Amino acid sequence: MLVDAPADLLDLTRAQAPDWPDGDAAVAGTTVLAKVEPDGSARFSASTYDAPDVVLPPGLLAANGLIGTIIGAFVAADPDWICLHAAAVHLSDGGLTVLLGDTMAGKSTLATALAALGQRLWCDDRLPLAATGDGLALGLRPKLRLPLPGSAPQAVRDLVANRGTAQEGDMVYLDLSANGQAAFGARLPVTRLIVLDRALAHGAPDLATVPVATMVKHLVPVTFAPHLDPMARLMRLRALAEACSCETLSYGDSFAAATFLQESTAP
User: Fold this and answer.
1) Is residue 28 part of a domain?
2) What is the DSSP letter of 183?
3) Does residue 191 lie within any of the structural domains?
4) What is the mean pLDDT of the chain?
């Protein structure tokens, strides 16, 4: 149940999540409180996990915060689910390739660059994962930071020019449904985990295999699972890593890295 959300905030939220179903089913029977303060800021909280309220300025940022709170409520309501702060793309190897990294690591840019090359974007920020290892597509509008780097190819510039639906500050939101973005409710198994390392200012991108234990250490801080105790969380993440190829991608330029990744998974 969604409580107290004003119409303009709901309109912005629907624009960023156009495929989401209406009604309580979208939040698994939980309560999400969305309250607008007198100064125009929006405050969010969810009934399914104990966390401080999220307070965000009005506009697209507030809509994104409401979306995140709803996802959190859904995940925390069911022990079968966790959520990764990650991007994911369906490459030609059959499963999902998950791109991991800290904020500003380049996840969204690399995922969008791969979409411009014809790969299927799954998500650019949040990936709910079932206990089976399947990644759930939420059909959210991906966002990209502007201005684009000088190395951005024309295909990426065309995406921004032709598929940009809204812009706020230095962030533009893209409608990639016509480019094959996975729609809400699609599921595929995760088969590849890649940690992004932008240590290379110059030079060719490079992939290196990492041990399962190292990958688990990278997964822990980007995993949202407030309903699982620490040991249960570690066991889930270890099982995920053991079922996947675990790699580090060292690179400097996102667009060269996208071409490299596409070629590395070509059938």
Assistant:
1) yes
2) P
3) yes
4) 87
